[in-house]
Design goal:
By secondary structure, this protein is of the alpha+beta class. The protein has a single domain, classed as GAF domain (Beta-Lactamase). Helices cover about 35% and strands about 25% of the residues. It has five helices and six strands, in the order ααββαβαβββα. The protein has a six-stranded antiparallel beta sheet with strand order 3-2-1-6-5-4, with helices on both faces. A hairpin with a 5-residue loop joins β1 and β2. α1 packs antiparallel against α2. Pfam families: GAF_2. This is GAF domain-containing protein. It comes from Kriegella aquimaris.
């Protein structure tokens, strides 16, 4: 990890120590750290198989109702939650795998990744970020995002 990415990650972890945590600020810092423009944080609603939108940036207003609640197994976030591993697309606009929901293409993003927020193999939610250009996230970036997801999970667990 380069020095800038490390300092950005430190900034993210500092934001997670605030009481209460400003999830919008956390998401904005994650998006900036990975040179992205768009992102979401979904928390797993206790006792359900539903991911509820906690914070968002760069999402068109008309899409928010479609992103507010995501069933596990549906769309990139839902599949990342179900598989408990990152799900990424180099270009969401040209994807034909069926992983991305049709409405996702309306975000106009291309390179995107959704990572499960896990702690001790327990799912707490999903973090997703995207760029407006085709992009393959590196293994190091995926690992960093999983670490951030674990840190977010620790905060959620503490309540």
């Amino acid at each position: 990890m380069n020095r800038t990415a490390k300092s950005n990650q430190d900034a993210i972890f500092s934001l997670l120590e605030e009481k209460p945590v400003n999830w919008q600020s956390v998401l904005a810092e994650v998006i900036a750290s990975f040179d992205c423009t768009t992102g979401t944080i979904h928390f797993l609603e206790g006792g359900t198989q539903l991911l509820k939108l906690q914070a968002h940036q760069g999402i068109p207003e008309f899409l928010l109702p479609k992103l507010a609640i995501i069933p596990i197994g549906k769309g990139m976030a839902g599949i990342a939650a179900e598989r408990r591993e990152p799900v990424e697309m180099c270009n969401l606009q040209t994807d034909s795998s069926g992983v991305a929901r049709p409405a996702a293409k309306e975000t106009k993003v291309e390179g995107s990744i959704a990572v499960p927020m896990l702690l001790d193999d327990t799912l707490f939610g999903v973090l997703g970020i995207a760029k407006p250009v085709p992009y393959d996230f590196t293994d190091e970036e995926s690992t960093d995002l999983l670490s951030i997801g674990a840190a977010i999970s620790r905060v959620i667990k503490k309540g």
